[in-house]
């Protein structure tokens, strides 16, 4: 099969970029001919670039031509779009339709329902724009990068393409990661019959810690930003005098603020900030931790960190919110706590640290779930089934 992947990279590499590379490698490993059309937000360098990008985010004729060229060269059987915002725009769908190609779109975030893409405002979940034909709330609050102008551009993109029928008619399949995400995107008016639930996958680490001994630290891995809930995790330590060592891996806008939060408290002796670490280091830390803590206070999509923990046989303590409560089964592969509740979080941390045998069993369960759902081969089979279904629906043996 010939597959054209399309992706707009962000200025700061994130999970989406990793997923694209992983799926490209997976498809090539199975003998498929894969081409990746990729652009980067690093190309937005000055004010004029920002203005031009804003205009083209709604409909880019140059991006449409780029896709035409790629299609004519590869002659793909299916086009898989990961991210089109802001440089490519939904115009790329029109290019694919001109050739009668099947289009698959992975929804890595909530952009089609929320111009900010992250439904989170004023330190809490916000779904004001879900289902609105014109997402005025996002414009009023300047949700995207604290700018009413930039928020207006995305609102215009969503509204115009909603009225034009782009979201409903152009895409043959939407891939979401969980049932929760599907339910939320249905509120945005996307057609239910076009949804497929397929989680992301991660490659297994080179080796696993099989010694059965208790490790002496807990682990957080992620971006240090408000919606990730790290401040609440630190509160749980400070307010409840938790003393099990905690390693915090990651960087972000809240890094210094979080360090100040533990300054002159006993928690300084137990919480260690490791900053950004490469993937091999993160996996090594996971293999030797007691459990992973994931205290996010927004819906999340599909956190690769949780899948990586499962691959390492590491149970996860997670906020019972959105997709997280669906991915981690309470009492089976980890524990749930009330999102944003530092007292409940602290209670679950204390319980987990005092029941090591039960937590080890949860870790073994997590690894079994990884092999069944989040390993490369299982994911490949799901992806190919989606590709084949959208191709078959057109009743076309070959476009060429």
TrEMBL record:
The organism of origin for this protein: Nostoc punctiforme (strain ATCC 29133 / PCC 73102)
Matches recorded under SUPFAM superfamilies: UDP-Glycosyltransferase/glycogen phosphorylase
Alphabetical keyword list: Transferase
Protein name per Swiss-Prot or TrEMBL: Glycosyl transferase, group 1
InterPro entries, per the entry: Glyco_trans_1, Glyco_trans_4-like_N, Glycosyltransferase_grp1
Pfam families: Glyco_transf_4, Glycos_transf_1
Keyword Transferase: yes
Domain called Glycosyltransferase subfamily 4-like N-terminal: residue spans: 57-202
All copies of domain Glycosyl transferase family, residue ranges: 209-368
A GO MF term: glycosyltransferase activity
